[in-house]
Amino acid sequence: MSTSTEAEPQEQAAERTPRRRGDAVFSGAALGAGVLIMLALAGVAIFLVVESVPALSASGDQAYGADNIVVYIWPLLYGTILAAIIALLIATPLAVGVALVISHYAPRKIARFLGYVIDLLAAVPSVVYGLWGRETLQGWVFPIYQWLHDNLGFLPFFKGPVTTGRTILTAGLVLAVMVLPIITALCREVFAQTPVMHQEAALALGATRWEMIRMAVFPYSRSGVVSSVMLGLGRALGETMAVALVLSASGVITINLISSQNPSTIAANIALNYANASGTKANVLIAGGLVLFVVTFAVNFLGRWLATRGQVKE
Amino acid sequence: MADLDKTASLDRDLQPLTNPQLPAIGPVLAAVVAWGAAGLVALLLGWNIAGWLVLGWVAFIVVLPAWSSAVEGKRSAIDRLVTSLVWSTFVIAMLPLIAVSWTVIERGAPAFSVEFFTSDQSGVIGVGGGILHAVIGTLVITLIATLISVPVGIMAAVYLVEYGKGNRMSRILTFLVDVMTGIPSIVAGLFALALFTLLLGPLPRLAIGGSIALSVLMIPIVVRSTEEMLKLVSNELREGAYALGVPKWRTITKVVIPTALGGIVTGATLAVARVAGETAPLLLIAGTLRSVNWNPFEGGMATLPVLIFSEATKGGAKPEYVAAQLERAWGAALVLIIIVMGLNLLARVVGAYFSPKTGR
């Protein structure tokens, strides 16, 4: 009842204000921009689907030698996920540590500067990381892979044979460097939002700094950290150039991380094959892109959902 | 019973008020001891500097908590261990940044010459030529993408903050912008490829398509940052303008946006920096032209990131061709990094220059 009595005067007031043409044009333009974004996203989905349809019937030469589209895309999807998981296993602990340095360990003035420096890590273009991984990093990690193969060769991951540094593990390392600043930036915000009262209460009860972080900061920010990892995963799944440049791929399914026979990823495969994609080959590649789009969409959706669920908790 | 109480209180009297602590210089001492000992071992075994640093780090991680455990007790020891580990993660995170910057400068700088910046690759086989065509391509394609993305992004953010205010449309739009932020760059490229395949036939090469693909990646970044900035503008300013009878659209253009301008420009500049280094979409749609092309509506354009990729992967008939191509790739990488870092720096400077109005 109270709502209706409040609403009436407002409606009357709205009628009394003159309709100005400028207002109509401007709000129309704002709405139009919003609609345009929706159309663009719908366009992305629609064009990908339309161009993917011919790929469903592709086989043999037109599907790059695979029997059908599923057989062709499946190993690529496996490689995509494997590389992303390696990247996250490396990047997540580092990112949480770096975020803690910036939010809790470094003195306030230095922390700002350190934040900028980590942001610079995100500013380096992916193709430069790829070039660096291909030319420089692979030489550095090669002796380490040999050592892993000699000493831990009984594990299926390090079976080898080690003939190149351009393996899926190197690709994962480069991806880790690239997602690290993303996860760090999000974790940093989440850690900084922990109520100061909780932290001071913990310290006042005699907790050491680590105990304070473990008991006051981590429980509060758990869902935020998980969602930031999901968003990092979304980025790692879709990253193209670094993998395309670093990986010496042959499209197999294996958990051997350091041999010269590596699974490729969807994105890298598109980048490497688009140039001679004639006929339905182009459609096959676009179908791969559609699969990638759906997977990253799902991962990002989950990440956002976790983030908003974490916010509601406050 | 009384006896027991008495001894307990006596004990308490005898205990010091504070726990024993390591001296403030303790971690430094531990570091000196750890890396000193590691240095001796490394010298004896003939290890290189990397081995020495890693061994010293391991020793430090052991020595400091062990000492702390002996003097201060277990809880402090764990605290010191975690502190060391957390700072270590930061150092590790810095290594790739330093390594990449160093390598790019070391290998890219020798490529710089007058010819490198004033000529293109037309007619060049292997050695010689420059990257002018790629620099022009990057500038033109990024500029057009900016011209598309910034107005659309800002207006969409205005809709979200000023008009939508949590209605159904604005909630959907917020969600879709979130989704768009996560679109892999290659998918944006495939979108442009699919669009122009339908319009022009198979394997189109069109620079404007690159701009459209980049816009798909850039718009959500602009919307996000602008939205955050508009939300920071205090409602008193808007209400003050309304109270004076100013129409809503003039309030937005004359009060709200100027107040948030610093943040908006910073966000847009960072978005430009982000897409200027994008490779995958441009590889798919803009292609690898070898000569200068100023017209985005006709034919492809080479861009710096694509040039880096193609020169690095091309291979060649002679070893010196491959070496020249790699040198060109590193030189282009250095140019690209200078452009991107310059834009980042510009964004900070612009943000600082415009921001006093918001008081943040």
Detailed description of the structure:
- The complex is a heterodimer of chains A (314) and B (360).
- Helices cover 76% and strands 0% of the residues of chain A.
- Chain A has a single domain, classed as MetI-like (MetI-like fold), CATH 1.10.3720.10.
- Chain A has helices at residues 2-16, 21-52, 69-105, 108-123, 126-152, 168-192, 196-204, 209-238, 241-246, 266-273, 280-312.
- Residues 1-11 of chain A have low confidence and may be disordered.
- Chain A is an all-alpha fold and 314 residues long.
- The radius of gyration of chain A is 25 Å and the shape is flat.
- With 360 residues, chain B is mainly α.
- Chain B has 2 domains: 21-109, no CATH class; 115-358, MetI-like fold (Orthogonal Bundle).
- Helix content of chain B is 76%, strand content 0%.
- Chain B has 14 helices and no strands.
- Chain B has helices at residues 2-14, 26-45, 49-71, 74-108, 114-118, 132-164, 168-181, 185-200, 207-232, 235-243, 248-276, 280-285, 304-313, 319-354.
- In chain B, helix 6 (132-164) runs antiparallel to helix 11, helix 10 (235-243) runs antiparallel to helix 11 and helix 11 runs antiparallel to helix 14 (319-354).
- The longest helix of chain B has 36 residues, at 319-354.
- The mean pLDDT of chain B is 85.
- Chains A and B meet through helix 2, helix 3, helix 4, helix 5 and helix 6 of A and helix 4, helix 6, helix 7, helix 8 and helix 9 of B.
In short:
By secondary structure, chain A is an all-alpha fold. Chain A is built from eleven helices and no strands. With 360 residues, chain B is mainly α.
